[in-house]
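---------- Forwarded message ----------

FYI, see the Response regulator SirA record below. Original note from H. follows.
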Amino acid sequence: MARLDAEVFDLRGLKCPLPVLKTKKRLASLQKGETLTVETSDPLAVIDIPHLCREDQHELLESAKTETGHRFIIRKG
């Protein structure tokens, strides 16, 4: 099982399309199977991030509402 305690990629405060674009770029630097935890505050990220995962064959392990927005845990596919 992949480690879920990796550093948090904090994208809070950024507006669409920056959270999904930065997430895509960050995922490209990871090895297959590594996880990325992303924090966002943009309401559109709840649509964009899952869509990115489906399109690029990444596994969305968790999508959770937080006090400041949303947290996504993604396993690179």
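H. also flagged this: The domain at 8-75 is CATH 3.30.110.40 (Translation Initiation Factor IF3).
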